[in-house]
């Protein structure tokens, strides 16, 4: 254990536990570097001009727009729940980086899908974004099972902050948001700005779960096996449960807490 780690264990503790307050992130980068002003201005102008016309546009049109108009590289974020975005990016965003948040809490099947994606789409670099602390280090600093005690803090340190740090080279990101995934996403735009002024592009917003599964089948895509075993929405293994037929697809996410989003899309 490093000296820095030992210091973390004994400073800023939460209550009498001796562990660090989970509201305080570990030392290290947590934010995205600002965009150059001219790129931020261009992004804002693009959203102003095109957001309405792209709101219900098909996925291929949205990605073709991104390829033509984005003023720099965009990252395609992949949860590995499905590989639809990887396939569409292969067709419409040649050479775009794939960005995967490796929380160290994933199902083994999710990691298997990531490895298959890396093999199937070799022209796209797979960037694996990890947290400042390993899973074991987080347990030592913040206490075991932070995901149960403070799930939002765990998501912040293992998802939100790693995404923010790894987004710095890009002018925007492509997400797999679908409006059909639940009430918190029911009016998600296809094109918007995130809180750093980067383009947030969501080509699948009009798709249903059935549309996704049909595309996977018709295009012979890599299938995450748990999506056929009652897991329509897949996150970390510690925080994802199967759902009943007809239930909200995200009902199995953080079922032990009053929480439906990890913070990436809030």
TrEMBL record:
Enzyme Commission designation: 1.8.4.10
Cofactor: [4Fe-4S] cluster
Annotated GO MF terms: 4 iron, 4 sulfur cluster binding; adenylyl-sulfate reductase (thioredoxin) activity; metal ion binding; phosphoadenylyl-sulfate reductase (thioredoxin) activity
Record-listed [4Fe-4S] cluster binding positions: 154-155, 236, 239
GO CC annotations, alphabetized: cytoplasm
GO biological process, alphabetically ordered: hydrogen sulfide biosynthetic process; sulfate assimilation, phosphoadenylyl sulfate reduction by phosphoadenylyl-sulfate reductase (thioredoxin)
Transmembrane segments: none
Assigned keywords, A-Z: Cytoplasm, Iron, Iron-sulfur, Metal-binding, Oxidoreductase
Catalysed reaction, written as an equation: [thioredoxin]-disulfide + sulfite + AMP + 2 H(+) = adenosine 5'-phosphosulfate + [thioredoxin]-dithiol
Start and end residues of each Phosphoadenosine phosphosulphate reductase domain: 77-242
Catalytic residues (positions): 262 (nucleophile)
Protein location: Cytoplasm
Region Disordered, residue ranges: 11-35
Cited Pfam families: PAPS_reduct
Keyword Coiled coil in record: no
Classification via HAMAP family: CysH
Protein name in the entry: Adenosine 5'-phosphosulfate reductase
Classification of source organism: Bacteria, Bacillati, Actinomycetota, Actinomycetes, Mycobacteriales
Gene name per UniProt: cysH
């Amino acid at each position: 254990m490093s000296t820095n780690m030992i210091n973390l264990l004994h400073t800023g503790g939460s209550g009498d536990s001796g562990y660090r307050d989970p509201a305080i992130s570990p030392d290290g980068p947590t934010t995205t570097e600002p965009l150059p002003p001219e790129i931020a201005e261009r992004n804002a102008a693009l959203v102003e001009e095109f957001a309405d016309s792209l709101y219900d546009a098909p996925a291929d049109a949205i990605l073709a727009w991104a390829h033509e108009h984005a003023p720099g590289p965009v990252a395609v974020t992949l949860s590995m729940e499905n590989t639809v975005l990887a396939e569409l990016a292969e067709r419409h965003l040649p050479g775009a980086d794939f960005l995967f948040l490796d929380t160290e809490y994933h199902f083994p099947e999710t990691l298997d899908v990531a490895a298959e994606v890396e093999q199937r789409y070799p022209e796209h670099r797979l960037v694996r974004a990890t947290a400042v602390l390993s899973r074991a280090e987080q347990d030592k600093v913040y206490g075991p099972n932070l995901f149960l005690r403070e799930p939002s803090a765990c998501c912040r340190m293992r998802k939100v902050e790693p995404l923010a740090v790894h987004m710095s080279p890009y002018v925007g990101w492509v997400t797999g948001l679908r409006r059909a995934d639940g009430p918190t996403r029911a009016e998600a735009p296809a094109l918007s700005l995130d809180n750093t002024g980067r383009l947030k592009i969501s080509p699948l917003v009009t798709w249903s779960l059935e549309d996704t599964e049909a595309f996977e089948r018709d295009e012979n895509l890599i299938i995450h096996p748990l999506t056929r075993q009652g897991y329509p929405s897949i996150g970390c293994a510690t925080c994802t449960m199967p759902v009943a037929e007809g239930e909200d697809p995200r009902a199995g996410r953080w079922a032990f807490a009053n929480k439906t989003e990890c913070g990436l899309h809030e």
